Amino acid sequence: MFATLRDYLPKGSSRFSCKLEVDVQTRVQDILLKLKIPEEMPKIILVNASMEERSDIRRGDVLSIFPPVAGG
After folding, report:
1. What is the full DSSP assignment across 18-66?
2. Using one digit for the tens of pLDDT, what is the confidence trace for 4-60?
3. CB–CB of 2/63 below 8 Å?
4. Which sign, positive or negative, has the C-alpha torsion 4, 57, 31, 20?
5. What does the buried/exposed string (b/e) look like for 12-47 if buried means 16 or more CB atoms within 10 Å of the residue's CB?
């Protein structure tokens, strides 16, 4: 979780990350809901440092979630 999305980490998490136990068929969307990240919030989502099209999370995967990127 990066920038403003860190506010959605569960209590007791490290500054940028947390570990979650997930079921076999957990989807990225399920995790976003669990963390209460608003669905309409645009974001960049990486699974294992790659922009993959698959939506499921497997044991050992690293999910990175970024807020909208701005700059000039």
Report:
1. ------TT-BHHHHHHHTT--TTS--EEEETTB--S--B--TT--EEEE
2. 888 999 988 888 888 888 888 899 889 999 999 988 777 888 999 988 767 888 888
3. no
4. negative
5. eeeeeeeeeebeeebebeebbeebebeeeeebeeeb
